[in-house]
Each structure stands twice: as C-alpha cells, then as structure tokens.
Amino acid sequence: MSTAADSGTRAGAKDGPEGEDAGGAKVNPAPESGGERYDAHFRVWRGDAEGGGLRDFTVEVNEGEVVLDIIHRLQATQAPDLAVRWNCKAGKCGSCSAEINGRPRLMCMTRMSVFDRAETITVTPLRAFPVVRDLVTDVGFNYTKAREVPSFIPPQGLGPGEYRMQQEDVGRSQEFRKCIECFLCQDTCHVVRDHEENKPAFAGPRFLMRVAELDMHPLDAAEESGLDRKTSAQDTHGLGYCNITKCCTEVCPEGIKITDNALIPLKERAADRKYDPLVWLGNKIRRRA
User: Region Disordered: which residues (predicted)?
Assistant: First the structure.
C-alpha cells in the first residue's frame, strides 16, 4: 500500500475526443481564466472489515487534476491514515480501482473536470470484494480464479523460434492481452457483485476472457493433451452464468470488447461442442481415429 502527498499533476493522461474524457464521459469546460482553483465536496468511505461509513471532506482542486490527486491531497492535509492502493498513476497498473459515484473506475484516470463543481463526489471501495481498510479491498478471489485456468500448452515437435501464426490470429488475442487486471470488470459483473454465493462456481469476465484467448490460440495443444477448454469454460468456470449484459465492457479502461470478442464467441464454441450434431459426430470420428 502506498501513500503520498499531493502530486498536483497527473502522469500519462489519456485524452478522449474534444469535450470527452478517455471513457467517453462529458468534460466540463475549463474556467475562462485558466488555472482556477475551487473547493470540491468529497464523501469518502472510511472503515475496515468490521464496518465503517462515509465521511465528508472539502478539498481544494486544481485544473487538470484527477480523483487520485485529490485522495493524495486528503492524505497530506486532512486524513493521513486514509488507506488507498495505487502505484503507477498512469492507468497501466490497475491498482487504484474504486467506485466513484457508484461506477467502478480507476481513480488515476477519472478527471475532476467530468464532475460538476457543485456535485458531491463519493468514493467507495470495490463492492464485490471484502474491505481491508478504507479504499483497499482484498482482491485475492481473482488470483484464486487465475490459478484455476490451465496455462498455454505448447505443441509437440516445435522448438523455440519455430512457432508460426497468421496475423489475424495474433491480432485477435492481442486485444485481450491489453488487460491490466484492474478487476473493474469483475467488480461490476452482477453475477458476483449481487450474488456472493456464485463466486465458487464463476470465474468472472476477466478469466473467462483468458479461457477464450487460449481457446482461440491456433497453437494451443490443450485438446491433444486431453483438456477441452470449451467444456471446462462451461462446467468449471461458469460460462453459463454470464448473460451478456456488457457491463464488463462498459467499465474496461483499456476499451477491450470483453463481451463481443471473448465471451460471446466462447459461448458459441461451447454450445457447438455440446449440442451441434455435426461437431459431435466429428469429435467421435477423431477420437476413434
């Protein structure tokens, strides 16, 4: 866990189209005088695993700052024991995930200019995971699910430097590798967000995307090794729980089309494997051969 005083600037800001931030949200115009400061009203959750509540703060905001800048200023001036997880402050490490006005976001990528100056900004920990303290949550659930996904199985007979892939196949999985594991998609998915009892059976969108990436890999030798990724996606990782609401796609800071490009194709492959009579017959013939 890191703490820091006010940095006053934001590293690695990703600009969206004019009038919008990187997530497509409307940006309020900068003050005509330029560089103007104002006081913002923040409501930050304070507490631990035993319980807690929202605490109100009034804090100065400078032009160009992001929510993480303000949290750092609160640490430096009003709440030195405020716990928050962060690292790169550039939208690349995924550490500073939180819920801002009820929406899962990266604090370092949420500009203060997207909010009305009179608006009270509420910052709370990720709701789907147990609270450790203040804005820090225990995301160990995700690492448990990561270990349940069998890794890439290299094909027999190919040595280092001998792998060959079509550019189309490279591009398909490249999108999935942009994931920074901020776990915003895991947090917003209502299958686990609103139903704690589903966690043992459901891997969540981030790790179903990993299964899809491996299943689409043309050189993955899972089936030759006796592993059916399509069947395990359904039976082991809970693919059937996903009802493709696309909420995971909406909150992804990297713009990965998780639902359209990973989950729906994986569902189609799993359904074909289980219910398509021609696929079933082909599998029978291959096994006998």
Answer: 1-35
